[in-house]
Amino acid sequence: MTKEQKTVVVLSSHTKSLFWYRLDMMREFLRRGCRVYAFANEPEKDWADKFAAYGIVYRQILVNRTGMNPFLDRKTEASIRENLQDVKPDCVFTYHAKTIIYGAMAANRLGITEVYPMIAGVGSVFLADSLKKKLLRAGVVMLYRLALRKCPAVFFQNEDDEALFRSNGIVKKQAVVRVHGSGVNTELFSVMPLPAQTTFLCTSRLIRDKGVYEYLMACRKLKAVCPEAKCLLVGPFDSNPSALKPEELQPFLDEGSVVYFGEQEDVRPYLAQSSVFVLPSYREGTPKVNLEAMACGRAVITTDAPGCRETVRDGENGFLVPVRDADAVCEKMRWFLEHPDSIQKMGSAGRKLAEDIFDVKKVNAAICEAMKIRPVDG
């Protein structure tokens, strides 16, 4: 390596997310002459070759992304610290709550000052108001304050999350960099012809905070008045506390409200079958699934919630609906059935937004600039 080259670690609590959502960013780091390591939770035997195909070194770390055991979390910090100490990176990019908190703590203990957290949504702990959640939230806020105090900059994907972190005293002196989500590869996700029949699609982990239950209820209501309606669902079951159980999904499958395709590595074949994309999430950073649908020329129904509202200009490339309102989701789905000629126009408007604002190349350039990762010839 030349003196100008940097060693960068990208740290996540979820290997699949790291590979599918951050690969374009890591490849940009490589193009700029960096040596790139990826740390996440799943075994190296399953993932090392996949990352190595792109020139990235993958390492497994010990992290349970949904657990709340403080003794295991101490082991998470130790695992990250051990790997960072071995790699000796110049800078660390980290996202997901646990790897932000314990990754930054581990880096602080090793004297690594260039740690850049990406707040890609705030999670269910900031959404619920039960006493248990409030107590847990207080603890999480304290950990965030401790972990992020030395970070030179923090990335946010929407102004609501930034305001939340500022109001809780998590972000004070750090520089704040706003980026348009994780971006979308507009070459990989290209415009597809619309299917002959108006078809709805939701792709998401099957958790309530993503609005999956509202989507299922909206599909049930729609089928009751429009039996010909076609609704698709793609995504895995999850260990999140708000996850749907298979027995909760089964009645909707039995009655034919939705067709479920399970977890899929490549969602493009399902976007090709759809006309309108639906994500009634309660809160996001910036939902990448919306951006992928927009890049493919699909109209979008999503919520007027932090992160989601950044992706849709109401009435232009889709519609915004209230959070936790299956009736409103159903109403907009029915509107598209009654106005099929609007789907092409809205889909084209979404594609333009994807190109002009959310293109991954623009997002990655902003990230590299904040992290002082210069082009090789720059």
Structure, described:
The chain has 13 helices and 13 strands. It has 2 domains: 189 residues, 3-Layer(aba) Sandwich (Rossmann fold), CATH 3.40.50.2000; 158 residues, Glycogen Phosphorylase B (Rossmann fold, 3-Layer(aba) Sandwich). It has a 7-stranded parallel beta sheet, with helices on both faces. Strands 10-9-8-11-12-13 form a 6-stranded parallel beta sheet, sandwiched between helices. It is 43% helix and 15% strand. Helix 1 crosses helix 13 and helix 3 packs across helix 4. With 378 residues, it is α/β, with parallel strands linked by helices.
Tags for this model:
378 residues; Rossmann fold; seven-stranded parallel β-sheet; six-stranded parallel β-sheet; 13 helices; globular
User: Would you tell me the structural class of the helices and strands?
Assistant: alpha/beta
Strand order of the largest sheet: 3-2-1-4-5-6-7
Domain module tally: 2
Question: Level of helix content?
Answer: 40-55%
Tell me which CATH architecture of the largest domain applies here.
3-Layer(aba) Sandwich
